[in-house]
């Protein structure tokens, strides 16, 4: 009897919450398909892998921990992007490129039988990951936790600036995995494949993943903090609407070193607000079990910055998204889910806008109604997404094909 060889994959995620978690979800799906996987992380990112350690045997799942490279613009002790403002991204990527030499040294000391077959790395790290792959004759496959619409928009611009190097390296890699499902944006998936991955391919894989629909969930991801004025407007809208709600706010940002400029103000909940709404709402400070909340039948809508991982979690959970795009790719996601698909409603414009609390209160109240137009369209799209993840569905089959591609 013959057995099909399964690949050994070296996974290198970007150490940022919204990138690392979907990369870990993808890693879990590949482990379920029989792959052997080694994940490269730095010490303070290692705890993110604990769920995988608890689910998979050490025979098939291993961790490679390398020290975080020092960088003059990265404070000592900082190893993840959520500890930094968005403008520090170039510095973080420069620092992470310092993992090239230690990784090469590690691989040079491995017996040929223990070398990986492929590197599945963040597209943001592809310029140096591709060099490692070439040095050891490995395939390099990139991962982006965004949708095809955002990729097509960003890469279609004449002046891509800072991102040009990563686009070039991604298109020169063996392939690209994006966090979507084919039925969500079929034309755009085909367009990205044809325009940017002409010599290889792009695979799609969806993130896996009281009274019904009566609760609003509010969260703005790991990178966004509201200003005092924005927080006050949102609190006033919740109080005026008398909606039941769960509001996840970030912990206070503490300066890592005296004198650094990476600290931010905490989301400031207005004095007395929690006491006045204690029978209606809950404020969670720090980490919140977002996926569990969004999949609960009582939650009907989701006020979100529209990071793509959050948007997918909202769609899979079957909750209407109230979109307040803040920065970067959020605006591309808004174009897709609001203008093109009609499954979300816009309630905010950008990171500086302060919504009218009266108008926001009315939208919050309407968003949990069964006949809210966006809800009707969302549920039809969600059904397609769930079918894509099931055995025989497009995303399920694409993951099978990805494993097979790694072995060729």
Automatic annotation (TrEMBL):
Gene3D superfamilies: Glycogen Phosphorylase B
Pfam families: UDPGT (PF00201)
Protein biosynthesis listed as a keyword: no
Keyword Nucleotide-binding included in the entry's annotation: no
A GO molecular function held by the record: UDP-glucosyltransferase activity
Keywords carried by this UniProt record: Glycosyltransferase, Transferase
GO aspect biological process, one term: flavonol biosynthetic process
Similarity comment: family membership: Belongs to the UDP-glycosyltransferase family.
Protein name, UniProt field: UDP-glycosyltransferases domain-containing protein
The organism of origin for this protein: Brassica oleracea var. oleracea
Phylogenetic lineage: Eukaryota, Viridiplantae, Streptophyta, Embryophyta, Tracheophyta
């Amino acid at each position: 009897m013959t057995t099909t060889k399964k690949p050994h994959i070296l996974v290198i995620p970007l150490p940022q919450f919204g990138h690392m978690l979907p990369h870990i979800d993808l890693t879990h799906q590949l482990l379920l398909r029989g792959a052997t996987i080694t994940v490269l992380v730095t010490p303070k990112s290692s705890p993110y892998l604990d769920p995988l350690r608890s689910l998979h045997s050490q025979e098939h799942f291993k961790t490679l921990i390398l020290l975080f490279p020092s960088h003059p613009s990265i404070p000592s002790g900082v190893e993840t992007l959520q500890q930094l403002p968005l403008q520090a991204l170039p510095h973080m990527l420069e620092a992470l490129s310092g993992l090239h030499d230690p990784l090469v040294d590690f691989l040079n000391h491995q017996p040929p039988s223990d070398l990986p077959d492929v590197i599945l790395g963040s597209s943001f790290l592809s310029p140096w990951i591709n060099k490692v792959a070439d040095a050891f004759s490995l395939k390099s496959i990139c991962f982006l936790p965004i949708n095809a619409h955002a990729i097509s928009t960003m890469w279609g611009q004449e002046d891509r600036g800072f991102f040009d190097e990563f686009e070039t390296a991604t298109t020169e890699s063996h392939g690209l995995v994006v966090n979507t499902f084919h039925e969500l944006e079929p034309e755009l998936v085909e367009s990205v494949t044809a325009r940017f991955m002409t010599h290889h391919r792009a695979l799609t894989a969806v993130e896996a993943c009281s009274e019904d629909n009566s609760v609003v969930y509010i969260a703005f991801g790991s990178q966004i903090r509201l200003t005092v004025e924005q927080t006050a407007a949102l609190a006033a809208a919740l109080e005026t609407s008398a909606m039941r709600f769960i509001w996840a706010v970030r912990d206070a940002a503490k300066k890592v070193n005296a004198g650094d400029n990476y600290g931010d103000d905490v989301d400031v909940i207005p004095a007395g607000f929690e006491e006045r709404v204690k029978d209606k709402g809950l404020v969670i400070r720090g980490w919140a079990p977002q996926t569990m909340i969004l999949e609960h039948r009582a939650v009907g809508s989701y006020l979100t910055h529209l990071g793509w991982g959050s948007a997918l979690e909202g769609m899979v959970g079957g909750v209407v998204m109230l979109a307040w795009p803040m920065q970067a790719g959020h605006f591309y996601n808004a174009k897709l889910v609001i203008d093109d698909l009609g499954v979300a409603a816009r309630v905010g414009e950008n990171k500086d806008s302060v919504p009218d609390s009266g108008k926001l209160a009315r939208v919050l109240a309407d968003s949990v109604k069964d006949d809210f137009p966006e809800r009707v369209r969302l549920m039809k799209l969600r059904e397609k997404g769930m079918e894509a993840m099931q055995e025989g569905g497009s995303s399920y089959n694409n993951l099978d094909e990805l494993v097979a591609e790694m072995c060729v």
